[in-house]
Amino acid sequence: MIAATSAARRHALRLSRTIDQRISSQFLHRTFASRASLSSHVIVDGNGQAEKWTSSTFAAVALAASVVACGAFGRKRSIVRLEASNGGCTCDKSDKEGDAIDDGDGSTTILNWSGTHSVQLAPGTYYEPETVSELISLVSHAYQNGIHIRPVGSALSPNGLAFDPRGMVGLSNLDKIIEINKEDMTVTVQAGARVSQVIEALRPHGLTLPNLASIAEQQIGGFVSVGAHGTGATIPPCDEFVTALTLVTPSEHGVVKMTEKTHGNLFRLARLGLGGLGILSEVTLKVVPAHRLVEQTIVLTRDEAKKQLNTLLKRHKHIRYMWIPYEDAVVVVTNDDENDLPLLGPGTEVNDGRGGTKKIVTEADIQAKYSRDEQLEPLRNLLRTLLKNDPDVSIDEDTLNGMGFGDLRDLILALGNMLDPDHIKRCNKAERDFWVKAQGLRVLPSDQLLQFDCGGQQWVYEVCFPVGTYGIPSSGSIDFMDELLREIESSGIPAPSPIEQRWTSSSKSPLSPASVGFHDIETYDTTHALFSWVGIIMYLPSEDKDPTGYRREFITQAFKDRYCRLVRKLGQKYGIMCHWAKLEIDDGDEDRDIAANVRSRLGPNVISKFNAARDKYDPKRVLSCSTIDKVFDRKQ
Ligand SMILES: Cc1cc2nc3c(=O)[nH]c(=O)nc-3n(C[C@H](O)[C@H](O)[C@H](O)COP(=O)(O)OP(=O)(O)OC[C@H]3O[C@@H](n4cnc5c(N)ncnc54)[C@H](O)[C@@H]3O)c2cc1C
């Protein structure tokens, strides 16, 4: 496990040095100053590919900037780095004209957002087709010659699911919005279009996507292929929004257009297909009328949060819990349509003009009780205390006061031993105090509120498990969290805040962690099953705080060996399955069990149906990667 991590680190370090030499300080300054982008996808190419960079370039260079930030400056400046943006990324054309970065040996290196996985591709094994016909020729050539072509989207997946050193295809040039159909309420896009691009294209038409994950820089191909999800007890994961797709397959079947009606289960396997059945070139998704949401943030005690969960799940369209380890506090964030506020929810009750009442949000309702400065004070104070104890780091008050929540938390964590429970407890306490003062209401377009700040570079592990139905939720959501928090706190796991808990309804895609099984019956009703998603994290220090990489390695080891293992152990009886983009399977004995558990959770029927689909659409397995091999290959 450590060896694998070291290899990834070496690539990342090599990459950061290369980028360090090439990116202008002006660009870095602009990037840091605007803090506009979620970092995502890095391509270091010495093979003339740079001119082909288009839509993902800004995001790519933004990640480069975040990696550079770890090493490019002196110790004191390098603490500043990018984080996931709260309000979504708008990449205009000029931003896309990114710097060409050449590592000089003709190879291509791709690094995921958290810097936890990277892949190095030999010259000539990374392809970026410019047109769909180029993609089709490439896939056909790969099929005939057995050449590897694993598809990659924005490369955001925390486990680097798209990575395969044998050969990859990037879709970023295929990012057209093809059709917005107001009658059918659908949008058809090329699979390389990013979620944020699709939202922007829908905006002038008064439309938007039904739900988002916490970021919007995924490509639509990656977004649906891993079954990304947001939150809402009646809202399924995002693969369920797909109504039609075009799959370019490395098989005699070539290009296959699929809908639920024409291909039934094959369609459902292909939309959440992990890039293993073909390369999605076009995807049609459901859309909904654009709407503003009212977001309410409150902090409850654990007892209150437990008691109120079933009511809140039913009352609110979107709801997430952020449990703070070692603190009797749960941050509860709810979102509801501005024009359809629950009567027992936030806002002011007024006459609805039909003899009844309704809720609206007034200026007075959104008046924050504390100023931003007052909200951030607990974090700033802790930072000041820690700085006093670290003579190597100094930050002037202006800089400190200019730092946002994410920056402050990252720096506070990194200034201590991130594996020391006492240090983590202090950070979590300051974070709780921040949230208590940040309670209140906001009203914004849905795409802005459904995304949120995910914090800095981190290890993340997220599991999903069934918790009854919308009508009758089981006690599983709370039982699982009770057990997890008890174990964390009694065994002193340095668990940073938050442990995030979200809910969705089920997906009919058989590979979805929120699937209730393989259903040949077209009428299967998915609307009532309820699933809970729980994500744990451990943040990673930036490279200036960890020049040797040892801290990251120790954190990696603690995360995998203690924290993830604990979740797996406790989760067995709840029927957990890991999010596909967060499933880490290395080569050790325990990892064989991880793959076996995924197989057993999916069941032999789903495994054999997916393998049959692979035999049909990728008989030479040119799309595969080690994770898919470990879970699905018959020899396993
Ligand atoms: C900061 C952050 C926050 C996140 N928040 C959430 C969240 O709230 N909810 C959630 O569910 N996930 C979340 N994720 C995970 C993320 O949503 C998924 O990893 C993501 O959807 C992947 O999109 P991508 O374009 O980066 O795909 P990649 O990571 O590049 O690829 C993912 C998979 O899709 C396949 N693929 C990509 N493009 C195609 C294509 N055109 N055809 C066929 N297969 C393809 C790849 O082969 C691979 O198997 C988060 C990740 C980060 C870094």
Write up this protein:
Among the domains are: 2-170, no CATH class; 177-289, Uridine Diphospho-n-acetylenolpyruvylglucosamine Reductase, domain 3, CATH 3.30.465; 292-449, no CATH class. Helix content is 37%, strand content 19%. It contains 20 helices and 23 strands. It binds flavin-adenine dinucleotide.
Strand content: 15-25%
Are any ligands bound, and if so which? flavin-adenine dinucleotide
- Overall pLDDT score: 84
Our Rg estimate from Cα atoms comes to 23 Å
Number of strands: 23
The biggest sheet, with number of strands, parallel, antiparallel or mixed sense and barrel status, is: 8 strands, antiparallel
**Coarse structural class:** alpha+beta
Number of helices: 20
- Residue stretches low in confidence (pLDDT < 50, at least 5 long) are 1-102, 519-524
Shape: globular
> Span from first to last CA?
20 Å
Estimate the helix proportion, in percent. 25-40%
Strand order of the largest sheet: 19-14-16-15-21-22-20-23
Summarize the structure.
With 636 residues, the protein is α+β, with helices and mostly antiparallel strands. The strands form 6 sheets. It has an 8-stranded antiparallel sheet, with helices on both faces. Strands 7-8-12-10-11 form a 5-stranded antiparallel sheet. The radius of gyration is 23 Å and the shape is globular.
